[in-house]
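Repro case for the chain-ordering regression, as requested:
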Amino acid sequence: MLKAMQEALMAGRKAEIESLVDQALAAGVPAGTILNEGLIPGMERLGVQFKANEVFIPEVLVAARAMNAGMSKLEPHLAKAGIKPRGVVVIGTVKGDLHDIGKNLVSMMLRGNGYKIVDLGVDVAPEKYIEAAKTSGAGVIALSALLTTTMVQMKAIVEAVEKSGLAIPVVIGGAPVTRDYADQIRARGFAPDAASAVEEIGRLLAA
Amino acid sequence: MTSRRLVVDSLEFRSPARVPRQLWLLPWAERTWPAELAAIRRRFPDDIVTSPAFLREPLRTQGQEYEPGLFVDEWGCRFENKQAGIIGQVKDPALTSWADVGRIRVPAERLTVDTVKVDEFCAASDAFVLGKTWSRPFELIQFLRGPENLYMDLAERPDGLARLLAKVHAFYREEMELWARTDVDALVFADDWGGQNGLLIAPSLWRELFKPLYRDYVEIAHRRGKYAFMHSDGHIAAILPDLVEIGLDALNAQLFTMDIEAIGREFAGRLTFWGEVDRQHLLPYGTSADVAAAVRRVRRALWREGGCIAQCEFGIGARPENVAAVFEAWDRPA
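-- result from build under test --
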């Protein structure tokens, strides 16, 4: 059943995922097993395929939607069993920038990989990231910018995080952003694309 | 030697006297670097220009496309913008129900082109003239549906998607046919198909749904003796063979997201590369020497007695000295 769940998830079959999760719960399969051996491996495999240009944005989005449907069924059971998400990520597009297609894709892929996402939206001031990270207990702050002129906001946010005493890494991404720029502003993570963002955040949280 | 002749010679691989050039710019550059831009314009005048549309009826838009705030385009797509000098992003898609496809208002004003004035414009210019077409079926349906909805649609293929695409394409065909009857030299279409590392959708899906549309646009241009020009941002190596196969004449692509040498080995001498030079990193952050080296690399890989147009975009963040360096480098002998 868990293998079937992976296949249904990768194909984005939402109704089938809902049905399989219901069946698994009814059969007494623990919620944590369904999540960690059914749903998350499916999303992880999809992420690998996405990075290798074997699947593309449409396939990832329908899989993420199916994942969310499955999670809606599972969450009450996970909470009852005391199972926590893999990590909490505060994410947003920096101040002055309204672009969010890339940021939304990263959010969906992270959610699909078992992370709790605090999505602050677009045009987010530095202090909002700090507040959200403190209240949510986030392990990572993820920043997106599309424009060279707004990318500079990332530096202010990294500095604000350092000053706040929050010992959590900042990961950055977006069209003009490079690893060199991340190093220059002391951002500990950099992701050139959505699939890499999931890997990078996993690496930072495990460190 | 006219500018038009330079461009045609490059398109036909007939050793033009110099590499023809064209500067693209966002209003941001005009506002931020007016004196520097004027100097670049004086030193490196464009060989390619776009004819005004000379519309008899104004487009029904609201707001200013390049100003902060809301801009509603002629299709009813609502763009929100925060920064002057660039375009915004659609936040509130116009088409939320497939039942409303029939209610989307086609901007018939775009078909009220005064073709006599266009022909006068072409006759008065010795530049290579592009029609003001810029057909973009994929981007337009993204704007109408919203990007996330549209990507889901592409996975699920509801009936409405085919109806929407057919409606948009019928309009663009009509507009292309209209411009093809004028004296412009080329028709232009555009869609951003690439991410940083590859295509946004599966190449097979692109070939099924979108390649036939572009094939139609190329056919319309060629039937009337015009060249077909296309712009597409991102890493689009997967569809380059298709674009060559349908007969595209010139492609504006983000070469520096791809393997330029591999592109050259396969396509140099078969397709003209209408720019560009890396506007994500080199133009804003590189040195003029870096830019000159980039141009030399493009020339080595892609120039075959023609097949290149010295184009770059003076967009947000770009340094004026680097924009000038693009054209200086192309003007130097190989």
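Ordering looks correct now. The first helix of chain B runs from residue 3 to 11.
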